[in-house]
Amino acid sequence: MKKMQTDRNYEGIWIFGDYRNYFQNRVTLQLISKGKELAQALKTEVTVLVLGNRIHQYAMEYVAHGADVVMVVDHPRLKDYHVETYTLLVAKMVESFRPEIFLAGATAFGREFFPRLAKRLRTGLSADCVSLEIDSESGLLVQTTPAFGGDLLAEIVTPDHRPQMATVHPGVFEERVHDPLAVGRIVYPELEIEADERVQLMRTRPEQVRKVNLEDAPVVFAGGRGLGSMERFQVLFDLAELLGGEVGATRPAILSGWVEDTRLLGQTGKSVKPRLLVTAGTSGALQYTSGIQGAEAIVAINRDPHAPIFKIADLGLVGDAHAILGLLLEKLRKRL
Amino acid sequence: MNIAVCIKQVPDIPTIRMDRERMTVIREGVESVINPLDGVALEAALGLRDTWGGNVTVLSMGPPQSEEALREALARGADQAVLLTSPAFAGADTLSTSHVLATAIARLNPCPDLVLCGRQTIDSDTGHVGPQIAEELDFPQVCGVHEIHVETDALVVKQVSDGFLNTLRVSMPALLTVSQGLSVPRHIPLGDLERAFSDRKVIRWGLEDLGLQAEEVGLMGSATRVWRLYTPPPRRRGEILSGPPHRLVEHLITMLEAMGILDEEDANG
Fold first, then answer.
1. A13-187 CATH fold
2. What is the domain-level CATH number for residue B212?
3. Measured between CB atoms, does B33 come within 8 Å of chain A?
4. Contacts of A130 (CB under 8 A, 6+ apart)
5. B186-240, pLDDT tens digit by residue?
6. Number of domains comprising chain B
7. B261/A275 Cβ within 8 A
């Protein structure tokens, strides 16, 4: 076996700490947990980098969830998340501390901030990964991401540039249990705070939409373009209401305007873990199925017996989704 | 206001096939279109130009057939179209794609006040290229914008990001990526139909035209490598049933009962 070729000029795993909506947005905690696994393979430490104002409480939380080090940059000017200012500061920190790997959640902010940071650092970045591991021969970070419309998975590596950067899909890794006795170092690096004022946040408020709680729903009915029309898609809402569930959709159904994009399932949408997921009129592109694989049971309904969706189904029903779902609704209404 | 719009030609459906040996996309037999969100960006650019004056330049990096997408953009009303094409550009990751696009945008005369891109493409879906162009041009950026208002030397834009509705003021020159739902009202003058058939050509720029070296573009200029492509293993293989709908629904209901999602029907039921 070849010797591990990790570049010792760069060492350690960094995670961008995103603490906004702490109680819903768990991706940083999921990354710490995964980062610990990677760190074990590389015999190194996990550092969470957190920028903001009055954020000490989050540093404690990150230690309790497994961080070896939390690096805190606390300043009134960092109160709001700001791509240009964060790029300015974080690029300087990366250049002086030289982490080998740098991960962020594929949140909207992560997907806006990390590409700019990677470009400034002249390094590679993979998007929305669903798996991360260390190759035992080369020591490289293998970043797995759905590719080319979603039929395939691609393993991406960044051989010669550092840090190796990736954004990671929320929900694919399990967070560690909160351990109040965990020990970690909290450090406050000396840093001159500069701000890029070309973009100014004038107002911000929570988006007012009807809350769709797909992630916690015990039952999810999901539909794709195969359902044929917006009217036919509605049966999913009726079924979900009867069984106390939620409705999800594939990207083509959303692009067709049948349902709002907060219901998107899959790589760029939500990952769900219901007890039961019924998916109808969906062919089974990986970009979609990556978001539903966590379901305990999957029932697929599709007219085409060879549709890839059947490969991941516990029960596959070959037939007309409109007829089957209509009949199911009728029977359930009689019973419930 | 002079605006540059970056567009990408993508397969019409998100279920393209791969040539596993070459690790390239099989394009034969698949209709190509302008990436939907890039189309939204183009419409917004045309609307802003119609209101505020200036011109709209559309750029695309891709194989020679990407010219079709640029022709369509000219037909929709763009003033100028530039195809960035060279065998050396092949195999590019987002780092080297953004390098080619940013280099081309910096060469436009006059330099644009605004660069617009779609937030993401339907084929590769990284969303990296917009922010990376902004970084190379040293323009501020806002991603996923659904409203644009023009002020003197600045734009006021709205973005929905991680559950927040943000209103941001961004000085120009700037780069915005647009999301669905952005619309800038636009009069379609009758002249547009004539423009579509005019003989305006798509400008082509290759490696030398851009003053670039082969090492800084395409696969050679990329930091990432695709190590392996594979079809994911099936998660499980369950029962697959066909037959009349009422039989299928019976099976489904039995499963729901077994899982405790439905109470078992009583004997009289």
1. Rossmann fold (3.40.50)
2. 3.40.50.620
3. no
4. A144, A145, A146, A153, A169, A172, A267, A290
5. 655 555 555 555 567 899 999 999 999 999 999 999 999 999 988 776 666 688 8
6. 1
7. yes
